[in-house]
Amino acid sequence: MDRTCSEKTQVADLALFGGPTLFEDLLHVGCPNIGDRRKFFELVDDMFDRRWLTNNGPFVKEFEERLANIVGTKHCIAVCNATIGLELAVRAVGMTGEVIVPSFTFIASAHVLEWQGIKPVFCDIDPETHNIDPNRIEELITPRTTGIVGVHVWGRPCEIEALEMISSKYDLKLVFDAAHAFGCSYQGKPIGGFGDAEVFSFHATKFFNTFEGGMIATNDDDLAKKLRMMKNFGFSGKDTVLSIGINGKMSEISAAMGIVGLESLEEFVSINQRNYHAYKKIFSKLPGIKLITYDENESQNYQYIIMEIDDDTAGINRDLIVDILTAENILARRYFFPGCHEMEPYRSSYSDYETFLPETEKLTQSVMSLPNGTSISINDVERMGQLLRFVLENSNEIREKHASIKTNQ
Fold it and tell me: Can you give the pTM of this predicted structure?
């Protein structure tokens, strides 16, 4: 489909200033990838014929088996979403008191802890990897610390060995928020089998989705058994409840979506990788823009197209660029903005965050994400690149015009 509306030859052509949009259709950062619809509806018909819609049905069991083969773990427990999955994992491994977690992550990583009466202790990040900085963890450990939650941001793994060493040294539990990292690897080993457990997201905005959903991966037999009970109200068998639990089960229709999606997994990754290389080729020539890169010696899902904007070199700041792109129907996003420590209830609890989270503060002001996935073509990428080149070449005039409009509002 031709999504062309208008190219930009002068600043007044920008949609932010009243010009026509560059794209007729909205370009989303996380537009859902869809597998074989015919196959999906066949499974749905099968589900309706059986009248088995939830409660650990055959699709969920098949889905879990396929997931375990992909991530290389003994156990994969499908859940209704990754947030519930992370809550289950944190509770099942016995985290209490204080748990160290990066602030540069989706708010759920912190909320999961706070919701269970655990204090999230925010750790700064490595500015190169965007992941939790192992060198800053030990100074945060207190007698109340019981664990670490590492986050594989953008699907690029944490420094896993360093985190495992710290966890072992201080007898801490280690859980990974692997929401971004399905299909990725660390030192040739699939993400999924590290720490006590790893939790994945299959939300609609992820490159692989089950509408809503997630899973917990672990090699610990006892932990897996505990998690399966906890996600089903603590039931062991039909009538026996052995522990406290919640309803964290995945439905059959979500599992059916996952089964079909797995059959298109290579295609999804291939398109993401193709787009990533197109972005990389174009954006490497644009001043003030740094595109994060992936280690292509490892398995990657290439979902996230992430740029860091250097205001001084680019001549324009990240927020104005996002506004310009959004006006053109390119729904770029600021990730993760603001950091968790600047959101409630954490903002009220941390008054000196600028002193102990300097790298997080810098990154939240410079990072943005661009659209990717099966809904994005090479032509779309090239036209976005042309637009950004135009913006950078005319940054002074754009800033002045924008400031004038703001002043007169």
Answer: 0.95
